[in-house]
């Protein structure tokens, strides 16, 4: 099997799995060494696929954009809600009427990171990007499955943060 075909097969195998797949299992399936699998995974990541390595194997992260609105005091609750359910808050962006899309990377992946981010906002290092659009903003959220993203969506809606587009 050629390199490109093997990489496409790896991607589809990981995408179809609901659980992490070990490098050894993938190597056996493709009849190559684990080192070749590691190289293939690195190449797929460079192509933009959100494949993550866990202690149990490889998973494909999925992403969804949520439009939300809340107060400054609710930022920490929103971020912790997402990470507690297994999500990673990749970024925040707003759609400004004059400037267009204004974006910032966040990568909030733990309650501790959410606390640090909110402490820096409270200490005045900067103000939340959402404030230039009356609280309305967007988060790209990454997770291991669509089911996790569905749970995050439901929880955001229950708290009143989610805005329907």
From TrEMBL:
Binding-site residues for Ni(2+), renumbered to this chain: 70, 78, 137, 139
Gene3D superfamilies in the record: 3H domain, Winged helix-like DNA-binding domain superfamily/Winged helix DNA-binding domain
Ranges where the 3H domain occurs: 67-162
Domain Helix-turn-helix type: 6-58
Keyword annotations from UniProtKB, A to Z: Metal-binding, Nickel
InterPro entries linked to this entry: 3H_dom_sf, 3H_domain, HTH_11, NadR, WH-like_DNA-bd_sf, WH_DNA-bd_sf
SUPFAM superfamilies: Putative transcriptional regulator TM1602, C-terminal domain (SSF75500), Winged helix' DNA-binding domain (SSF46785)
Pfam families (alphabetical): 3H, HTH_11
Highest taxon, organism lineage: Bacteria
GO terms of molecular function: metal ion binding
Name of this chain's protein: Transcription repressor NadR
Organism encoding this protein: Candidatus Fusicatenibacter merdavium
């Amino acid at each position: 099997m050629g390199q490109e075909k093997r990489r496409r097969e790896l991607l589809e195998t990981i995408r179809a799995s609901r659980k992490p797949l070990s490098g050894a299992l993938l190597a056996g399936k493709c009849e190559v060494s684990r080192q070749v699998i590691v190289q293939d995974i690195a190449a797929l990541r460079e192509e933009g696929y959100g494949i993550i390595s866990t202690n149990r194997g490889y998973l494909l992260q999925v992403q969804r954009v949520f439009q939300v609105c809340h107060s400054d005091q609710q930022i920490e609750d929103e971020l912790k809600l997402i990470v507690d359910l297994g999500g990673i808050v990749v970024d925040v962006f707003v759609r400004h009427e004059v400037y267009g899309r204004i974006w910032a990377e966040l990568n909030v992946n733990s309650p501790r990171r959410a606390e640090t981010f909110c402490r820096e906002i409270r200490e005045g290092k900067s103000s939340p990007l959402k404030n230039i659009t009356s609280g309305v903003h967007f988060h790209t959220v990454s997770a291991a499955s669509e089911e996790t993203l569905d749970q995050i969506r439901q929880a955001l809606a229950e708290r009143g943060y989610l805005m329907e587009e």
